[in-house]
Amino acid sequence: MDKDVTQIIYTSEQNTEEKEVDVKEVIAKVYGALKEKGYNPTNQLVQYIMSGEPLFITSFNGARSLITKVERDELVEELIRYYIEQNFK
Q1: Cα(59)–Cα(73) distance, rounded to whole angstroms?
Q2: In tens digits, what is the pLDDT along the chain, a chain of 89 residues?
Q3: Taking the model in full, what pTM does it have?
């Protein structure tokens, strides 16, 4: 095998044909699940984004599985975009 060629390795968890996840929808569903279970959704989401530890998100209603389908930087981007739209336009 040529060492200068980049290899792409797909694990069984990766599906190259997965449809894109709607970040807004993920945030809304995860927020709802956290709220319904009695957690402070803002605190839990911040802890998840900062640490990358999925245990900050409840598994209730599949919220933990759902949020791990979105990159943390995408979550931050969406939250900042929304904040700017709501406060500076």
Answers
A1: 21
A2: 555 665 555 554 544 344 567 999 999 999 999 999 999 999 999 999 999 999 999 999 999 999 999 999 999 999 999 999 999 97
A3: 0.75
